[in-house]
Design goal:
The complex is a heterodimer of chains A (434) and B (326). Chain A is 53% helix and 13% strand. Chain A has 18 helices and twelve strands. A six-stranded mixed sheet of chain A has the order 2-1-3-10-4-11. In chain A, helix 17 runs antiparallel to helix 18 (416-433). Chain A is globular and about 65 Å long. By secondary structure, chain B is mostly helical. In chain B, the strands form two sheets. A two-stranded antiparallel ribbon of chain B has the order 1-2. The longest helix of chain B has 32 residues, at 37-68. The chains are: A alpha/beta (434), B mainly alpha (326). Chains A and B meet through helix 1, helix 3, helix 17 and helix 18 of A and helix 3 of B.
């Protein structure tokens, strides 16, 4: 035994050296590899590759139909590379730096602008020259990077609003509130009638962001909202404090025990007619599995708080496509993006996935359900569209700072001042970092 | 020489003759050499490949993450790495409202694991060691939680704790407005709720460790103590427990490791929201994602590393000292 070990040290020392050398090579190799990859492999002029996060069956199939229609029209093949959507989002960073597909699925708003500013996406002003007429101004605004160039082709969207059951409102004789005071009065009345005024679940930490967004842009307007989200306005501003004060006024009417409840469970209280209202995206309809219940579902825009802004802003998270930094097949990419920006492409998609609405205001609404029609009107009538806190701001800021902070506020609405200065301190370091 | 090598090599490699003489010095003749060239190449590969992998995947990454703790980096391109000195740590210690609660919760995690499931596991082990009826059955039942993945454990306990439809609230009627117990959300409750789940699992683990320890206790010791007229408790306290000392050391180390690496259960339970923050979860939240704060997350990881070293180094020193004395 002893002799063997005595001969080993030299070998392992060599191994260590080799290891260090190997590791250095590995470390240097990663960017090298990714650099050569983008020029090699398939630069077939007949195909365009698309990186997709549509791993769920319904959107996957619906997009397949869209690509098939494009193929028929242009003769180009679309090669789709689908990843699980959480994985796609977590890896987007390294994906875009490596050998991304020509076109990739992404979200509008700051999240799109962030990668545009990092030079990980190509501007597509040439595409927009063709498709510009298909979209309302609010959508155009959403598709531009911070430099004013277009980077995004929107496909589908859905609004956030206050959902309710028509039958419940009819039974108690409630009116749809259009102002803050009416909303608070309605909450009081519902409580008296034995209902939970506002269904709420914040276990996943993002639903609370939606409530903040609504109160903030109704009270302080779209411009302040975007400045706040882009890290330019201060969270210690009296305007933000006022938004939290309004929220605190509404908080007693929210469903108890929301910190341990998912949005799906909260939606069930609306399905069961135990809750009067629920502020969420139209995806809440997925929880209404019974046709009669679904037909009973309706929504209204979050009530006006400040008459200067009325109800002119709608929160409408929008999904669509971007072009990676150096697509292999530029001409094909332009053709595909132009096609995706047509009403025909959106109509094809919505046939397969009726849970969202078209981003284009030229797409036919003939096949829409009443709920979809209303959502579509709400979005096309909006003066400005916001995305959602985590799409309008840096995701690292919203996930590591805002999610826990909003949960803290919900637990202790009285500690707003120290909470806001803590948010502001953390915001400064995050936005200063890059 | 080559033919000689091929014919002899397997035997030579497998059974090195004992005796120091022929090895330390290189012997010129091929057939007398202990390790032929091929052997040395094979050995080189066997030692070299794992070493390379180990160095690249453990040391380089660990050192890189320590270095990154002093930088700010969003993970996009190496040129965006910016040196920020101790800034990350300053922010962590002063500005991050989740950091100190996380440290505190990791400590609470350890204290609870050592005070509740460990003695309970010992108790169960002592009972099972008496060879009572259905001993195997109990053993399996208590050990089962250890076998199940913690992520699954998390899902199961969520069903128990769910405030609206969970087992507990449904049984005691605490899911109505007015008297509502939010096991998962309430920051005064949720850590303890998770700790019950963690203890439930840890008990079985401790039981098995102690059971193994008890099997190693010399039966003649028991006999001797009963001859001396000691009752059961006296025997345990004065005779059995002292002989479990090595097991206790293992238990202590295992529990410290469990407390420091606590992650999966909480992540499934409520992603480390208010009241259940843990260092491991803060690291994950900062590093994973589309625009990550890799420098900042690494700084938290370094804090966790320092805590781990502070615990492990004294243990290693004590162990080595004992070995040297032996």
């Amino acid at each position: 035994m002893r002799d063997l070990s005595s001969s080993l040290p030299s070998a392992s020392r060599r191994g260590v050296l080799k290891g260090i050398g190997g590791a250095a090579l590995l470390g240097a190799g990663i960017p090298l590899l990714s650099a050569c990859g983008s020029s090699g492999s398939s630069s077939d002029p007949k195909t365009v590759s698309v990186g997709s996060n549509d791993s769920d069956a319904v959107p996957k199939k619906a997009y397949a139909d869209v690509y098939a229609a494009f193929q028929k029209q242009s003769g180009l093949t679309v090669k789709v590379n689908t990843k699980d959507h959480n994985t796609f989002q977590e890896q987007i960073n390294s994906y875009l730096q490596g050998t991304p597909d020509d076109v990739f699925k992404w979200f509008a708003g700051y999240r799109m602008q962030f990668f545009a500013a990092k030079n990980l996406a190509s501007p597509i002003d040439d595409v927009w020259e063709k498709i510009g007429g298909n979209f309302p101004d609010a959508m155009k605004k959403l598709s531009k990077g911070a430099d004013g160039k277009y980077y995004f082709v929107p496909m589908t969207t859905y609004p956030w609003a206050v959902f309710y059951r028509k039958s419940v409102f009819a039974q108690h004789g409630y009116q749809v509130p259009t102002t803050w005071d009416q909303l608070v009065a309605l909450c009081k009345q519902m409580k008296k009638d034995g209902l939970v005024p506002i269904a709420f679940g914040d276990k996943d930490a993002w639903p609370a962001m939606g409530t903040f967004d609504q109160i903030n842009f109704r009270l302080n307007g779209y411009d302040f909202h975007t400045q706040l989200m882009a890290g330019k306005a201060a969270w210690t501003d009296a305007k933000v404090k006022a938004a939290f004060d309004h929220w605190a006024e509404l908080l007693p009417y929210h469903q108890d025990g929301f910190m341990g409840r998912t949005w799906q469970d909260a939606a069930q209280t609306l399905v069961a007619k135990k809750a009067g209202m629920y502020l969420l995206g139209t995806f809440v309809a997925q929880q209404f599995t019974n046709k009669a219940d679904l037909d009973d579902l309706d929504f209204f825009a979050f009530p006006e708080i400040n008459p200067a802004y009325g109800q002119d802003t709608v929160e409408a998270p929008t999904d669509g496509f971007m072009v990676s930094k150096s697509p292999k097949n530029h001409d094909g990419v332009v053709k595909l993006m132009e096609y995706l920006g047509t009403p025909a492409a959106e109509e094809t998609y919505l046939k397969g996935d009726p849970s969202v609405v078209a981003a284009s205001n030229k797409a036919s609404t003939a096949s829409y359900s009443p709920l979809q029609k209303k959502a579509f009107e709400m979005i096309s009538g909006a003066k400005t569209l916001t995305q959602f806190m985590d799409r309008d701001s840096r995701p690292d800021f919203t996930s590591t700072v805002m999610q826990p902070s909003l949960q803290k506020f919900l637990q202790n609405p009285k500690g707003v001042d120290s909470l806001l200065s803590s948010i502001e301190r953390q915001k400064k370091t995050i936005f200063a970092s890059s | 020489m080559t033919t000689d090598t091929t014919s002899k090599s397997p035997e030579a490699a497998a059974v090195p003759p004992s005796g120091p003489a022929p090895v330390t010095k290189r012997v010129p003749q091929g057939h007398k050499r202990l390790l032929t060239r091929r052997d040395r190449i094979t050995l080189g590969f066997m030692a070299g490949v794992p070493t390379i992998l180990h160095v690249a995947l453990v040391w380089v990454t660990a050192l890189a993450s320590i270095a990154l703790a002093f930088t700010s980096w969003d993970g996009i391109g190496f040129d965006s790495i910016k040196w920020v000195g101790l800034d990350n740590f300053r922010q962590l210690f002063t500005d991050n409202p989740q950091f100190w609660p996380a440290v505190e919760h990791n400590v609470i995690w350890f204290v609870v694991l050592i005070l509740v499931p460990t003695p309970f596991g010992l108790f169960l082990a002592v009972q099972l060691d008496k060879k009572i009826r259905f001993s195997r059955l109990y053993q399996t039942a208590f050990f089962l939680p250890v076998v199940v993945s913690l992520a699954v454990t998390g899902f199961v306990w969520q069903l128990v704790y769910n405030p609206d439809t969970g087992l507990i609230n449904s049984l005691i009627g605490a899911n109505k407005p007015g008297h509502y117990i939010d096991w998962i959300g309430d920051p005064k409750l949720n850590l303890w709720a998770v700790l019950i789940a963690a203890s439930w699992r840890h008990t079985g683990y401790m039981m098995i460790l102690y059971l193994a320890g008890l099997k190693g206790v010399d039966p003649s010791l028991r006999e001797a103590s009963s001859l001396d007229g000691a009752n059961e408790w006296q025997t345990f306290k004065n005779v059995i427990f002292p002989t479990l000392r090595p097991t206790n050391t293992v238990v202590l180390v295992v529990t410290i490791i469990e407390a420091l690496r606590a992650f999966d259960l909480v992540f499934v339970f409520n992603k480390g929201a208010q009241g259940t923050e843990l260092l491991s979860i803060l690291i994950t939240n900062n590093i994973i994602g589309e625009s990550s704060r890799i420098g900042y997350g690494s700084a938290i990881a370094v804090v966790l590393l320092v805590i781990s070293l502070a615990v492990i180094i004294p243990y290693l020193i004590a162990t080595f000292r004992k070995e040297r004395q032996a």
